[in-house]
Structures are given as C-alpha cells and as structure tokens.
Amino acid sequence: MAYCAYNPILAFVCCVCIIGVAKSYVSIPLKIYPGKYNVSSAMRLSVTRLVALAADGKGLSLASDPSGQVNFMDMVGNLQGDSGRGYYMEMMIGSPGQQLNILVDTGSSNFAVAAASHPFITRYFNTALSSSFSSDGRSVAVRYTQGNWMGELGVDLISLPNGPNGTISVNIAAILSSEGFFLRGINWQGILGLAYPMLARPDSSVEPFFNSLVRQLGLPDVFSLQMCGTGMSASSVVDPPGGSLIMGGAEPTLYRGSIWYTPIVEEWYYQVEVLKLEVGEQNLDLDCSEYNMDKAIVDSGTTLLRLPVNVFNAVVDAITRSSMIQEFSSGFWDGTKLACWMRGETPWRFFPKLSIYLRDTNTSKSFRITILPQLYIQPITDLDGTLDCYRFGVSSSTNGLVIGATVMEGFYVVFDRAQRRLGFALSNCAVNGGVALSEIDGPFSSADVASDCSGRALKEPLLWVISYTLMAVCAIILIILLLLLVLPCRRRDYSGEINDQSSLVRHRIK
User: Fold this and answer.
1) Which own/partner contact pairs does 289-292 have at CB distance under 8 Å and 24+ positions apart?
2) What is the DSSP pairing of strand 190-193 with strand 98-105?
3) Facing residues of 270 across strands?
4) For the stretch 4-34, what's the b/e string if a residue is b when 16 or more beta carbons lie within 10 angstroms of its beta carbon?
5) Cα(277)–Cα(271) distance, rounded to whole angstroms?
6) Which one from 239, 299, 388, 416 is the annotated catalytic residue?
7) E runs forming strands in 448-500
8) pLDDT at residue 455, as a whole number
9) Alpha helices in 232-333 (DSSP H)
10) Predicted local confidence at residue 467, as pLDDT
C-alpha cells in the first residue's frame, strides 16, 4: 500500500477556519422600523406632534460658533421626519446641485445616496448629470441590522441649505442596489453617517462627512441633535419640521437646564458606559457589565431602545410586576402585536418611568436620564375612531445596548467629539400637553458599581486582523496538505495507489 503522510485533523481545522472567516461580515446596529403590525391595512395613522422651541436663558452654549462660519439659529428646524421613518435633512449634491433628503444616522460613517431608481423613493442622485462627480473605482457595501446596500465610491460637492455656509468636497457612496434599506412610506433617499472613520467602508481611509466639514470649513468638532417626534409615527403627506441638527456646537434655545456629559468610551460608534437601569423606582440589580454587553451606543438611526436579552427580559419582568398589565400578550413585548384602548383612554398610568444611569465625566459620579411612558409606549393608529393603539418602544438585542430615537427624543444630545464626550439636556420639544416627557437628575455616586463596566470588547479592526491571520494560517496548512498529496509517496505496497476517493480535493469538493 502506498502511504502519504496526511493529517485529517489539520484538514478539518482548515475547513472550519475558512468557513468561519467566509461567513463573517460587518453589522451596524439597526435602522428604521418597517412598521409591520398585526393590524388591518384599513387603519389610518393618528398623529400627535408638538414642536416647542423656547429659550430659558440658561446654559453655557453659544448662539453661534466662535469662528463665525455658522449661525446656529439658521439650522433650527432643519430636520423633518419622526422616529418611525427616520429624521432627515435637505442637501444639494453635485454640480448643478440635485436636491435629496438624507437620513441622519449617528450609528454609521458612510455618506451614501441612491444613484439608481427604486420603487420606494421618488428621486435619486444622477451621477452622470453632475460635472463635479468623480468615481474612484472602488465598490462598497454596508450591511445594517435591517437592510443593506451596495454601490461605488466617488467624490462630489455638497451644500446644505439649512447648514453652514459653503460648498465642500465629500466622499459619496453611490447606491446602485439595496435590499430592505429603502422602505415604503419614507421620504429620504440617502444616509448621512455621522460616526467615526473606524466604521467607514470599505476602510477607515474614507473620510466621513462630518470630518470633511470640520476640516474644510474650520468648524468646531461638535454637533448636536434634537429629535421632536416624541416617539410617534407621523402620517401626514408633508412632514412638518421634526427637529434640528446643529453643526459646530449647541443651540441653547433647544434645551432646558444644564447639559450633563458622559465620556465617549471608544471612538467608532458613539459608545458610552451604562451603569444601571431602573424601572420606576426599582433597580434591576444586574451586574453593570450586562448593560454594556458587546457595547452600549447612542444611535439616531435606531428607532427603539434596544437592550441585551438579559436586560430586556429583566425590564419586561419589572414592568409587569410593578403595574396592572400582567395579562398582556407576549406579542406586545416582542413587537409583533399592538395594545389598544378605547379612544381617549391613555395608557400612561399603567406604565412606569424608565431610567438609564450614565457615568459622568467625573468618573466617580453618574447621572440619570429618564423617559416617561409617553416616549416608549408609542401611539401607532386608531381603528374606526374607537380605539387608540400603541407599540412597545423597547426591543431585545443580540449586538449591544442601543440608545435610539425612543430615548433621544426626550433629550437634546451634544456630540462633543473635540472633548470626547456626549452631552444630554432636556429637550424643549419633549413636551406633551404641558407635561415634560423626560428628566435628568444627578450627580449620584458610582461607588456601588465597577470602575469599568464597558467590557472593553474586541473592536472591529482587531477582529479583522484576527480574521486575516486565521485565513493566512489556514492557507499555509492547506498548501502543506496539498504538497504532501502531490509529492511522490514512499511506497510500502505497490497495490495501494492514490485514487480520487482518497483525494483531499475530491472530499473538499463534496
């Protein structure tokens, strides 16, 4: 029998390595809730919206940035939309400018616009009509928790009718195909990723939009966001102003009281450190690492408050124990069913407040942001004018805690990248019927929690290094195995020749 030294264990390891690496991909948390419910299509959406902008004279922010490049008041009301369909702003793209509405997303880093027709959008960016568009020949693809798109990278000029003065040159991903990204009923045709270069695709050399804005116009590396949908999905054909994106600083007429800051733990997503959660006055009493499992981020492109599975289950248990709704269907909690009451009978009294404790910039302290049930028990529709129906604005997550629009609509959020911190203040538009829908309290001692709750999980660039290293090791093993098969084998018995049935390649093909 002919004998060739070949180790089946090594071959198995190689196969596992190659398959495991081949299946890995980048996932960016959530996008917009598609609005699929177990309700009749005959139902019509009911909307309640309140946009109140009133200055209280407090706070330390300036009405315009010191460089004189922008007047923040010019940007007030420059967003439209709501939490259900996303918040977007108008942009002029190319030469001559083509007007598109662009979704504002702090959970990704690519500026991408539709560059081909799609049944759910009314217009797209025609690169052939822009004399200033230049393709760099690279393809790009981004996969979100919901939806994905593919396209080509290029560079073009943009201006913001309700933003800083001037035209800047930015990287643009021209979306040529997508799946589950553009949704029925939306009024935007692209996405503005406002996170850090580490999340940019295909790699961090693609400078994100806001980095380009700061570099070319000399603005402070700060932006702030007010989202005024108050957790409710709009139904009007023409959306009223839905909020404000202030580029270069913070506008004091958009918030009340002081801004409370928490450190940015890692500069990829806007990752923060959550110390604990409370349902009403009840502390969940989970280890703080549970709240930061994988990561905890602030993401305007996420519709709901998303919680790690253990935390989500604890929140639901605490709500049902502390209220009169123990008999609710599980479908309400998992988002597949709506809860309805007779028209005019609001359900707020049945639900407690939800509080999130964030570490203060003084790391021995913390502060608490609280949302009332009006923000997380969200009106969706009415039935024949007799019922008001609501959805649960919290969901479970397998990829970290996400402070999405459900929470952000209660606050004016300052993304102070220059000092690596996020600020929260009470939003002036988080008011319904004269009742404030959010609260901020502090400082509290953080002596009862760990000094570091963030977990410091392996971040994406390191994971890619590990993946490529494993691929290289697998390739070396495969080459060795193939060489052992093709090299002359030491004959021990003339009757045992190698045939297809014992070939490694044959078995790999099978």
Assistant:
1) 289/450, 289/453, 289/455, 291/401, 291/453, 292/400, 292/401, 292/453, 292/454, 292/455
2) parallel
3) 267
4) eebeeeebeebeebbeeeeeeeeebbbbbbb
5) 17
6) 299
7) 490-491
8) 64
9) 288-291, 309-321, 330-333
10) 55
CB < 8 Å & 24+ apart, contacts of 432-438: 432/48, 432/50, 432/230, 432/374, 435/372, 435/374, 436/372, 437/230, 437/371, 437/372, 437/374, 437/375, 437/409, 437/410, 438/369, 438/370, 438/371, 438/372, 438/375, 438/410, 438/411
| 417: helix, strand or coil | coil
Q: What is the DSSP string of 349-367?
A: GGS--EEEEEE-SSTTEEE
Give Cβ neighbours of residue 328 (< 8 Å, ≥ 6 apart): 320, 339
Kindly report the number of other CB atoms within 10 A of residue 274's CB atom: 24
105 is catalytic: yes
User: Which residue, 80, 408, 411, is CA-closest to 244?
Assistant: 80
- C-alpha to C-alpha distance for 426 and 423, rounded to whole angstroms: 10
The enclosing H or E element of 243 equals strand 241-247
Hey, what amino acid is at 92? M
CB of 154 closer than 8 Å to CB of 112: no
Q: Look up 56 and say whether it is catalytic.
A: no
Question: CA of 279: how far to CAs of 69, 100, 272, 284, 465, in Å?
Answer: 44, 41, 20, 7, 41
Question: Is the distance from CB of 417 to CB of 255 less than 8 angstroms?
Answer: no
Total residue count of the chain as it appears in this document: 510
Residue given tokens 């009415």 in the structure block? 382
Catalytic residue among 105, 156, 239, 360: 105
- pLDDT mean values, one per 10 residues, the chain (510 residues): 39 40 39 38 29 33 52 92 89 98 96 96 96 96 90 97 94 97 93 97 96 96 92 44 92 96 97 96 92 95 95 94 73 89 85 96 95 92 76 93 96 98 96 91 89 65 55 74 61 32 24
Of 132, 149, 143, nearest to 93 by C-alpha is 132
The whole-model pTM stands at 0.78
Beta bridge partners of 177: 150
Give the number of other CB atoms < 10 A from CB of residue 366.
24
